[in-house]
């Protein structure tokens, strides 16, 4: 390992944060996300949470949620977090594919990646960019979770003590859910030369690989294990869990991330700069 690996990793992660929070392009992306999330929070999330509260109060959480296929919502003690959980599991993995696509590919296309690796190792660049993007996503997830907490307290301020543990559980779980998607984009970004190519390959690999493995697992059940390597494989199961139970499947995204990061590191070490 390079002697200054961790120092370089920290510097590259900081640069990634500055690129997102202190540049015109990054601030525009942040503003766009904030506006979109504002409308999601104000309308569909708030409306759905009100429906859950009314459903629990008037129908005692019975057949109504089973009928619409969202029976897991009634397992949460706080309706807003129940709805946020379902929204977050759909939004943030998709956001990760676009947000994490440009980790090293643009620098390779411009020729600046070769200059960067003269002063630091390829490993520090690869893992530093990955860590920086993960920190950005963790901050966005935390911010949206906090706004959802504000929605909870606006409805009933006495729920603060019970809402804080749920806030921590849901934030950690969503961060773990996007981890393999970011690792997949790190591997693709190390291979291709543009953000568009990385995004297209991610969509193709994710959809076709999932379909092919599902078909093979249907005819050859012994191959069902390989479905665990598909990012997001556990998302449908996560929707059925609530609060701290959502960490029961934490080993799946961690395993996926380790495999994808190992593949990405191997590509980065052998890819021409």
TrEMBL record:
One of its GO terms (cellular component) is plasma membrane. Keywords: Membrane, Transmembrane, Transmembrane helix. This is ABC-2 family transporter protein. Pfam families: ABC2_membrane_2. The keyword NAD does not apply. One of its GO terms (molecular function) is ABC-type transporter activity. The chain crosses the membrane at residues 27-45, 83-105, 126-154, 166-188, 200-226, 246-268. It comes from the Bacteria.
């Amino acid at each position: 390992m390079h002697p200054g690996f961790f120092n370089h990793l920290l510097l590259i992660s900081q640069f990634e944060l500055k690129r997102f929070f202190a540049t015109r392009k990054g601030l525009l992306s942040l503003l766009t996300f904030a506006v979109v999330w504002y409308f999601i929070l104000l309308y569909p999330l708030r409306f759905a949470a009100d429906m859950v509260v009314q459903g629990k109060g008037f129908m005692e959480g019975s057949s109504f949620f089973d009928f619409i296929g969202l029976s897991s919502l009634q397992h949460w003690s706080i309706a807003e977090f129940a709805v946020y959980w379902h929204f977050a599991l759909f939004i943030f993995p998709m956001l990760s594919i676009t947000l994490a696509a440009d980790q090293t590919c643009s620098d390779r296309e411009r020729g600046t990646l070769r200059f960067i690796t003269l002063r630091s190792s390829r490993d520090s660049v690869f893992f530093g960019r990955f860590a920086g993007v993960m920190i950005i996503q963790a901050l966005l997830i935390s911010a949206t979770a906090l706004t959802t907490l504000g929605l909870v307290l606006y409805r009933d301020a006495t729920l603060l003590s019970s809402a804080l543990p749920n806030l921590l559980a849901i934030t950690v779980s969503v961060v773990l859910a996007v981890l393999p998607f970011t690792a997949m984009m790190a591997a693709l970004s190390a291979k291709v030369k543009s953000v568009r190519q990385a995004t297209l390959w991610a969509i193709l690999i994710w959809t076709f690989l999932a379909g092919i493995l599902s078909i093979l697992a249907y005819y050859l059940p012994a191959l069902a294990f390989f479905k665990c390597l598909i990012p997001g494989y556990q998302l449908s199961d996560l929707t059925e869990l609530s609060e701290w139970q959502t960490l029961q499947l934490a080993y799946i995204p961690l395993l996926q991330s380790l495999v994808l990061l190992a593949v990405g590191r191997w590509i980065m070490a052998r890819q021409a700069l």
